[in-house]
Amino acid sequence: MEFADSIIPLVTLIVLEIILGIDNIIFIAILADKLPPEQRDKLRYWGLGLAMFIRLALLAVIAWIMQLDKTLFSVFGIDFSGKGLILLAGGLFLIYKSTKEIYHKAEAGGDANAPDTTKSSFRQLLVQVLILDMVFSVDSIITAVGMVDQLWIMYTAVIVTVGIMLIASKPIADFIGRHPSFKILALCFLLIIGMSLVAEGLHFEIPKGYIYFSMAFAFLVDIIQMRTVPPAPPVPPVK
Is Transmembrane helix given among the entry's keywords (predicted)? Predict the structure, then answer.
């Protein structure tokens, strides 16, 4: 009976972890696009694998994680905790990366699917993925601890979620790669997530439902536009 009573919180936590993990998948997919095709799957698998490892490691030191909500210092009446500082740093990093990528796509002659001329090594991109894994993992673990009090449920939810993300990451990345407009839309999503992380770090929490509803609505509009607007004729080469 005890196991049956744990099913609902387990499924709820898995769904929540998947929703929070979508941001991670989009970020990794956009970074992987900078690599040669034969290395993109490797970055996705390493990135998501590290995300699982970090979350499992954080669960192992769960008592320390809970201390991250305690105030470390205050500035202009705003209390800063360990969690807040991590969210601030991660949010600013996400805003910087998203803005830089949008600028690059705009400067590529308006072609969002133009080849990326920026030289990035696998190791550099993996470090960037690791930074965001840390941010999303801390937020995810603190949320999980607030929902359930059984460690095995948290471990199971993390492992199942990462497994689902590994399966879904390639189709999502391929879809974003085939549709340039969705690449810009995905970058805008990451920009919004970055701003929400900064706001949360400053105690101006934006309800997640508003953010994800906005994303879903924008995604639906883009789908409708893709279905109804005929593709533009190819531009003839300049002679």
Answer: yes
204 by Cβ neighbours in 10 Å (0-12 / 13-18 / 19+) ranks as exposed
SS3 sequence, 52-102?
Answer: HHHHHHHHHCHHHHHHHHCEEEEECCEEEEHHHHHHHHHHHHHHHHHHHHH
